[in-house]
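Regression report. Comparing outputs from two consecutive submissions.

Submission 1:
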Amino acid sequence: MRKAKHVLQAALILVFCVSAALPLRAFAVAEDELVSLAKTSKKPVIADFGLGFCMQCKKQAEILNEIRESYGEKVIIRMVNAGKETDLMKRYGVEWIPTLVFIDTGGKVVLKKVGPLGFEEIRAQLSRMGVKL
């Protein structure tokens, strides 16, 4: 049953994403890296689960680049390749892309949101986590 679910998810991802010859914007992330990064850096982490050819994921990446420019070193943003990091997706309960996972400085997931979030929505969540512009 699980295998069928993952096959269905992969098929749906292909339906919703447009294929293009673009480099992947994600990289391998060790399973514990996101939590330990938040704890050791004392900065919140935003994990962006997506694929380089998914149009909604590209839109999310553009917004996260704006966040990175605005917040600088106050927040850590990690892109996670949903096609390769399936164990990490399972760990965080990610079933659809794009999905953003917000991790506080204590290593706790405080929000998991499916679909592209706008700049103001991300800013509001960061503010709730104590991060100001």
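Submission 2:
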Amino acid sequence: MKYDPDLNWRDIHGTGFNHFVGPVRVVDQGDGSMPFGLMLDERHTNANGVCHGGVLMSVADSAMGACAFVASGGPVATIDFECDFISAAPIGEQLYGLANVVRKARSLVFMEADLYVKERRVFRASGIWAILPENSRARDESKIKK
């Protein structure tokens, strides 16, 4: 996969913990997939001088969650998350990937995502998101800044 800076990127401005990681950038494609990215900087460094694994997990969770939100049309919550660390992601590089809906059921959305740096896959994730009732206390679409 190749990073395309000319896509219609928008920032997801998280609150709480997510505020410290991002902004994660996404592109709404409306086809069950969502490109996403994060410019890696010194905030994301681990003790070995590369991107901390928790950052990779957080970015994948945010991107797959945003894609599941669009696919379901309302609030969702991560109920399962699995991942594989494939290669180091150097600081100062553009991290990017693609979140995909694998299957949308009545109450669940099954997701997958791969993360890349310079066309090299560095991380793989999959998970399940529960579709929440509209009156849940989950954050609504107004929290996703355009």
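Expected: both submissions complete independently.
Actual: both completed, but the second showed a warning that disappeared on reload.
Relevant detail on submission 2: The chain has two helices and seven strands.
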